[in-house]
Structures are given as structure tokens and as C-alpha cells.
Design a protein that fits this description.
- The chain is of the alpha+beta class.
- The strands form 8 sheets. The chain has an 8-stranded mixed sheet with strand order 10-7-13-6-16-18-20-21, sandwiched between helices. The chain has a 5-stranded mixed sheet with strand order 26-30-29-27-28. A 4-stranded antiparallel sheet has the order 2-3-1-4, with helices on one face.
- A hairpin with a 5-residue loop joins strand 2 and strand 3 (about 90-95).
Length: about 650
Amino acid sequence: MNKLVLGVMILLSVLLFANLANPRAIAILPATSETQRVVVVYKTPPLPTFSRDSIYERMEVLDNARDDLEKRVNRATNFELEQTFDNFPVMVITTDTAGVESLKSDPNVEGVFYDMPLEVFDTYRSPFTAIGGNLDARPSMPAYSDGADLYAGNDYEIVVIDTGILSSHAVFNGKIAAEACFSFDGSEVGIIWHSLCPSGKSFSTSVGSAEECTLAGCGHGTMTAGAAVMGLSNISNTYRTSGAAPQAKVIPIKVVTQVDTTISGADNPCGGSTSTCAVPYTSSILNALDHVVTLTKTHNQIAVVNLSMGFGAFASVESCKSDVSNGLYDLVKNAVSSLKKLGIATVVATGNNGSDSANRGKIAFPACVEGAIAVSATDPYDDKIASYAQNGALTTFLAPGGAFTNAYHYMWLPTSDGSFGGISGTSFAAPTVAGAYAVLRSKYPNATVDQLTNLLTATGKTVTDARSGYNSLQKPLIQVNKALAVPAPNMPTTDHIYVKNGTALKSFIDSLNYPFEYKVKNTTPDIDFASGRTPYAMAATMQSLANNPLLPTGASLQLTSYSVDGAVNRSYDIIVRGDLNQDAAINITDLVQLSRHMAGVNSLFGASLLASDTNKDGASNITDLVQISRHIAKVKEISE
């Protein structure tokens, strides 16, 4: 790379980062009577316990509570309702200072805060090292996959909340699973906002909604997504690189708004004297998190959300909550907790102001929120903490993020002009960890977020922060290849056993370790039919249940084998071959499901897809359709 070009890129990026550190970001409200955009958190009646099945029920409760507040808001002339949320008790309103005071005094309002701009965490623009495959110039660098691509994300989805993505870039070919955009129009003193969504909408999910923007401040999302999912690519004659989860897919959500401003100095959201740029705002990020919850109704492969932006510096959860306050901390905490209950990790970059002595031991918001996976950056060449990286007690993991030294220390990533460029920052350490969650999810599909976090922690390399003032802080640098190689205690890896009746399982059960646990899953609560039984008793119980027509619809039979110390060896879904909906009966419903699968109307997946392969030839096709038909007609039973 030409040294002059490299220098300009570095200078522009440093300016972008420095000037987006807006001191107004933590203020509750600016001291003005002019119209301003605020986020309102409202109180609700008790909500149903959070789960995929309760999402729509929760939406109804939220709708009723929101409608009540909206009626009072709409009667006031100084309020304009801008946005509402589906899954969280949030509204965005334009009002003046008097309106804010009115909202704050409303008994049904939990908190009110200014819709603050955040910053993106990139620093130096320079080359990028491998985070998935080996780097040719450094063949000793371990791969982040298992080396055979058995576990490399395998169609799991990574949500990247950022500036968008250059969808035409070759590294994203066939990888975009869905997309969305949250942006807005409006104005306040010295600022005019323009939506960057298609047709100027405030929300869009159409094709092209998350297309990378082209203003100052854009380009970040393309690189962030690349760090997570790009396949092995030849960057130059010297470098090859891949994302952490090269077989995963990405769901980009664009959350930036165009800012045209006459404000100068520290309060300029664009930084310095720049008058037009793209800026992420709190309301758009909250909208994106809300949308991810809704997406889980149709996308059951989402493994992780990546957020490489934020503001501030906080040493503890207490200071994070106290300084952010006014409902925002709790709102983000609840969003992170809700996603976690759905099996989705929320990975957040810690920030790039770590070289500032005032920020030693402190990380940015929302990385400081309880439950978030906070990621700081290392130099990928020597595993030292990067000079710019914010790192503290609240940091969860370290991952390669690049360091400003020379070409061996930088990170190569796809750029918004269709090529590759250099970058360093905690922004790119975070999606490395996000990719790691997708990789581990492909091996442990039933693991909880905490189990995956514990696995990465246990197999990580302890790195000491030797920088001045960091008090030899130690944190784990992720080693995904080691996490995949080590048997994980209490990690429920699920296999599938196909049976006509329980008797067919005898030889299999004889080979398992004791004790056993045999349950009907997906019932409330799960029904424990046999724990620690002998193989013969287990087989009899299975035979009875596998042929039980009264088994609840949607329930699944599951056998779990434990080792002597009580750790889970393996879990097995017990599925009658041909019983696609696992209702313990092979009937016309299964026939219809297989027909729809063959027609491409509603594809089967996982256990159902395997169960539909009635003749065990590795494909679900017309032969299986005939076999199920003959079974239903009692011409020839499907059996082992």
C-alpha cells in the first residue's frame, strides 16, 4: 500500500474516532427549550416469561400499555410520536423541554433520555491478519476453525448492527440471510437528519435495505461483517485471510442516519469541522435489537448479535448504570437478557480510547452492561493488548483486533469499494468473537449462551495487560480451535436415533454409560419418565412412549447419557422414522410436510429432515413419500 495513501487513511480514521467521542452523549437532555428527539421507556403490567412462544403474547401487552400512553401524548401539541417498538416498552418522541418534564412526571413513564449519537470503534486503517484460516506469511498462526471445516458456522446467522454492508462484495456472495435498516428524518438546533433507508423510510427490510452508506463515517459495517463471516480470500500475493465463521451467514442491520450540521467543536456529531456524515443513534440501535427478537420467529439459526459501537468509559456495572441512568441501562440489559433466553449472545466492542490515562481499566457502554460479551483487542502477531484498546474488569474476552505497528500486525478486511483494506480496532475483535459463537453453536446446537461462554473462557489463553496503569489485568484470549478440540463438560451435543419401537434400542442402550435420563421435552414442564433405569427398563419405557398416540404435539423424546461424574456425555432425540412433526404418529400430516418440503414450500431441517429419509439413502424425495403413503395405508410399515 502506498505510504501516503496509508497515512491519509490513518489520519481520517483517527479524526473520525476522536470527534465522534461526543461529550453530550451521556447527558440526559441538552439545556434547551427547542424541539429535541427523546427516547421514552414506559411502564407495563407484568409481562409473560420471555420465550419464542411468548413473543406475540408479550407484544399484545406492550401494545395496550403503549396505546394508553400514546393517547395522552397525542393530546398534547408539543409531542410528535416518531417510533414505537414491538418487543420492548419504548417510544421515540420529538418534543421540547416542557414536554420532557411532562413525560418525566407521568406515572407510567420509567425514564426519558436524549437520543444520543454513538461512535464506531475503528482506529487505524491498515492491513488485516487472518482470524479464520492461516496467514501465509505466518503459517504458525492457528486456525480458528477445527481445520476441516466441520464446524465453521455452518449456516448459523450473525446479526451485525452497524453502518450497513456492501452486498456486492465477493466475500458476501450467498451469505446475506436477511437485512434491515433503521434511520430517521428530523431536525433540532444546528442539525438536520435524513434517513438512509430506501425511499427515506424510517424502517425497511426490503432487499438493499442494509446497503453500505457512502458518507463520512460509512464503510465500518462491511469490514465488521467481513471479520465475522468472510470466506478464505487472497488479499494479495502475501496475505490470505478469512472470517472467524466462514460458513456462517450474516444479517446486516443498518443503524446510521445522515447528519447535516452547522455545529462545530466537541458537540458536532460528525467531528471537527465536518458538516455531513453518517452517525448511529441510540434509538436506531434499540430498534435493531428489538427487530432481532422479532426475527427469531422466522430465523431460528441466529447465534449471535455483534455491536461494534458505543460511548464513554466505565470501570464497573455500578458506574455504568449510574452514569448512563434514566432507563437506558436497564433497557439494554433487558434486551441482552431477552436475546440470551432465545440462545443468542450479544457481543459488544469495549472501545478504542484505552491509551487515554483517564480510561484505564474502563470499557464503553453498552459493553459494560451486565450480560453483554465485552471484547477487547490484541495484536494478532504477538498477542499483546493493542495500545488503543479499552480493557477492564468487565471485559469478557480478548481477540485479534490489529495493532498499529506494521503489515504483520494489522487486519485485512473487505472495504466498501469492493476491495480489501487495513483496519485495527476493538470493532474487529468483537466480530471475531461473534464468529466464534457461531462456530461453537454449529457443534453444540443445544448449548446455552453461558455454556459457550464458559467453554471459550476455559480454553482461552491468559493474556496479561502489561500497559502502564492497567495493573497486570488478565483476560482470556479466545482459542476456538482448542475449544472445539476439548470435550466440553455439561455440553449437550444432540444426535438422532430413529426407532419403530423401544425394543430396537436395546443394543444401543447397552453401549451407553450410566446413568440415563429419559424425558419428553418441549412440554411444560418436561416430563421425566426414567432416570437411572436399567437398559431393559429403559427400553420398555421407550417402547411404550414411542407408540403413545397421546404424546403432546411438538413434544420430543430424548435420552441423555451421563458420565460417572454427572457430566452430560450426549443427548439423543428419539424419532420414529417418518414422524416428521414428532407427534408420535406417522400419518397424513407427515405426508403433507414431506410433500411441501419436496415442493420447496416449507423446508424441513434438522431432526425432521433426517426422519423424513425413510429408506436411509441420504435424501428426502419421492421414494420416501411413497414409503410414508404405504405405511399410512398399512401396505408396508416403516420399521428398523
